[in-house]
Design brief:
Layout: H1 2-17, E1 22-26, E2 29-33, E3 50-53, E4 72-74, E5 82-83, E6 98-100, E7 108-109, E8 122-124, E9 146-148, E10 170-172, E11 180-181, E12 192-194, E13 202-203, E14 216-218, H2 226-229, H3 232-239, E15 244-246, H4 269-273, E16 276-279, E17 282-289, E18 292-295, H5 296-320
Parallel strand pairs: 2-3, 3-4, 4-6, 5-7, 6-8, 8-9, 9-10, 10-12, 11-13, 12-14, 14-15
Antiparallel strand pairs: 1-2, 16-17, 17-18
Signal peptide: 1-21
Organism: Branchiostoma belcheri (Amphioxus)
InterPro entries: Dev_Immune_Receptor (IPR050328), Leu-rich_rpt (IPR001611), Leu-rich_rpt_typical-subtyp (IPR003591), LRR_dom_sf (IPR032675)
Length: 321
């Protein structure tokens, strides 16, 4: 009896552990499971426009199957650890507009991996193990607008890493390991840049000087100190950004008894006020008054102390009369 039951259990385990590669297609959308080999395990109609290959065992592939009508491709939650050069080509994928290869094991992207895809607008490589971006990684993508590289291990952005992407508007580099922002690291047409939750301690002069259309810059939850941000060049650069700059949740490391730079008249009050310094055990935002930086608590006390002394003097005079 036990032998019979154990045999049944083995059969059940084997059956549950095996997933046959299969694609379920409705109209022009195909959802495939159990895929481990590309292109061998993929069999979809030639007119497929949306292809989802989720939660499978896809490893590396030299090139993706030619699908002339394909517009959206999702390769989320697989085992991919690198993207080879010309894995996607304009001749095989002329209509491709959106590619998502998130939650994999990608540690490197070879230059020209996505080169010259004429209609690609959105590319997400979030939740991988990418450590650096080589020059020319995203070159010649004339329509790319949104690029997500969040939740990787990128420690720097070289000025030539994101080049020849003329229409790029949104760049998400949040939750990486970037420590320094170098000059001219970003394309000039960017509208939104997310650098939150990194290890940024330094911002070089001119880091955002060429990004003239920027409407939203997120530098929250980094390691910025007041001394680094209050250099005239950095503060002026951030102040020249026409949109909003989020500097919340940084350590700052300053107190209201410290000495602040003499002239920061080109800095905006919004940038200055986001720096929080300690005063009497509590934190106070800085204020900018006539080009002079001071703690709001200090400025308030400086204003009210004479009034308080006058009030006390008047009370004593009345008591003595």
């Amino acid at each position: 009896m036990w032998a019979h039951l154990s045999g049944v259990l083995v059969l059940l385990v084997l059956a549950s552990g095996q997933t046959e590669a299969a694609c379920d297609c409705t109209d022009t959308t195909c959802n495939c499971t159990g895929i481990s080999r590309v292109p061998q395990d993929i069999s979809v109609p030639a007119n497929t426009t949306v292809l989802n290959l989720l939660n499978s065992n896809i490893g590396n592939f030299g090139s993706f199957p030619a699908l002339a009508q394909l517009q959206e491709l999702t390769l989320t939650s697989n085992q991919i650890d690198r993207i080879q050069p010309r894995a996607f080509t304009p001749s095989d994928h002329p209509q491709l507009q959106k590619v998502t290869i998130s939650n994999n094991r990608i540690n490197s992207i070879q230059p020209a991996a996505f080169s010259e895809l004429p209609l690609l607008q959105e590319l997400s490589l979030a939740n991988n193990n990418i450590t650096s971006l080589q020059p020319g990684t995203f070159q010649n993508l004339p329509e790319l607008r949104n690029l997500s590289l969040s939740y990787n291990k990128i420690d720097r952005v070289q000025p030539s890493a994101i080049d020849n992407v003329p229409k790029l508007q949104s760049l998400d580099l949040s939750s990486n390991q970037i420590a320094r922002i170098q000059p001219n690291a970003f394309p000039s047409g960017l509208v939104q840049v997310d650098l939150s939750s990194n290890n940024i301690t330094a911002i070089d002069a001119g880091a955002f000087g060429n990004v003239t259309l920027l409407q939203q810059l997120d530098l929250s939850s980094n390691q910025l100190r007041a001394s680094a941000l209050l250099s005239a060049s950095v503060c002026n650069d951030l102040s020249s950004i026409p949109g909003t700059v989020d500097l919340s949740d940084n350590p700052w490391g300053c107190d209201c008894s410290g000495v602040f730079p003499d002239d920061l008249s080109s800095c905006s009050a919004d940038i200055i006020s986001q720096i929080q310094c300690t005063s009497g055990g509590s934190t106070s935002p800085l204020t900018l008054q006539g080009g002079t930086v001071m703690c709001s608590a200090a400025s308030v006390s400086a204003y009210y102390t004479p009034l308080l002394l006058l009030s006390v003097a008047a009370m004593l005079k009345n008591l003595l009369m």
